[in-house]
Amino acid sequence: MDMKKKTFNQLLGIDEDDKKIIELIEENPDITHSKIAEEIDKSQPAVGARIIKLERKHLLKKQVGFNIKKVDIKTAIVYASTKDVEDIVEKIKDCPFINHAFKISGDYNLLCFIAATDLQTIEKLVDLCFRRDPNVLSVKTNILIESIHDFIMPVDFQIENFDGRYCGPNCHLKTDMPKFKFDEIDTEEEPESESEPGPES
């Protein structure tokens, strides 16, 4: 039986020129098409066409956010062991305050990155999304001390206003909650409470 290991080219459906383009953009995301064309000895239009193809295959992606190697932002790595990981994934997949999430193997089956201005906010979110959920068996939180390599973290600025109740209008934990209280809307008209008083501050 031939157990020969597959190459990146085979797995990703790319050739050596594609690989070189990816490497050049990884090294310098601002590199021009003309410079890439010089490096791989192709025309500029050919390079542009290859880049579009790589983007459509999800092999080139620009991520906007903070480089946590360069900025001082509190970041937690959260491990969760769950009875049903799909149930938890469904709950957190649209949460704007969970920056990255992965299903993993081992003692824990879910890993998340959460970034905020302070550790107390992170603890509130971990408590809300994981510790209170009966589907979660255990949670381990590690605080990232230093990023050795560049690592881009998208951050929703509204986490500054998170009060521990729910993360936004589409939060799966929100049932009969008032309107998303930190939305940048209704500055002219205050939401009125018709049937019951609003939450105490």
Describe this structure in words.
The chain contains six helices and six strands. The chain is elongated, with a radius of gyration of 22 Å. Strand 3 and strand 4 form a beta hairpin. The chain has two domains: 47 residues, Arc Repressor Mutant, subunit A; 96 residues, Alpha-Beta Plaits (2-Layer Sandwich). By secondary structure, it is an alpha+beta fold. The C terminus is likely disordered. It has a four-stranded antiparallel β-sheet with strand order 3-4-2-5. Helix 3 packs across helix 4.
Tag the structure with descriptive keywords.
4-stranded antiparallel sheet; 201 residues; Alpha-Beta Plaits; single chain; 16% strand; disordered C terminus; alpha+beta; Arc Repressor Mutant, subunit A; two-stranded antiparallel ribbon
Q: CATH topology of the largest domain, what is it called?
A: Alpha-Beta Plaits
User: How many structural domains?
Assistant: 2
Distance, first to last CA = 68 Å
Shape: elongated
Percent range for helical residues? 25-40%
Integer average pLDDT: 85
* Major β-sheet strand ordering: 3-4-2-5
Largest sheet: 4 strands, antiparallel
Helix/strand structural class: alpha+beta
CATH superfamily of the largest domain: Lrp/AsnC effector binding domain/regulation of amino acid metabolism (RAM) domain
Instruction: Outline the low-pLDDT stretches.
Output: 176-201
**Count of separate DSSP helical elements:** 6
SSE order: HHHHEEHEEHEE
